[in-house]
Amino acid sequence: MSDELVFYTNPMSRGRIARWMLEEVGAPYRTVVLDYASTMKAPEYLAVNPMGKVPAITHRGVTVTESAAICAYLADAFPEAGLAPPVTSPARGTYYRWLMFGCGPVEAAVTNKALGVEVPPERRATAGYGCLDDTLNALETAVSGKQYIVGDAFSAADVYVGSQIGWGMMFGSIEKRPAFEAYWAGISQRPAAKRAAEIDDALIAKARETAQA
What we know:
Layout: E1 6-9, H1 15-25, E2 30-33, H2 43-46, E3 56-59, E4 62-65, H3 67-77, H4 91-114, H5 132-143, H6 156-171, H7 178-187, H8 191-212
Helix pairs in contact: 1-3, 1-6, 1-8, 3-6, 4-5, 4-6, 6-7
């Protein structure tokens, strides 16, 4: 069983979330950049993730896909980084709550908005997120007046939920509410967040140069 941590990604994907988390963890990792038109659907990668999507990681004989799961796994696999409340802490419940809220209701709500899908009022009870306004109002309560989403400590939940908020505001799927802007302005300045963005932005620039050559 290899201890090597391998990261499968594309710099123009949710892999940017996992990259940020990896940089927060600080453990060495090897990056495999996949192309949407070819290698992401190749048999070699489908053996890692049958969905043919990124991100994914392999570590100690385990494959983990889905950005929120990767964040949670890395926080537990590298506890020395302090990116999750202890299992015995009551804050662990709050951590799970907002991490899963981000990958459940928030992800569904903002994706449907981007696709132009609106749940009719009479069908909202059947949708896990109800409606976009309810979801964003709940999310606002989680970050309003706070530096971090769980108590006084930065965690993997901030990486995931913060990325959702930052991207959502950038692409217009999440309103630029003052609470969201203040929260994102704080966590997006973390050194690991900046390093991750620089790495992925450089990969995008390199791909563009290669395409134009």
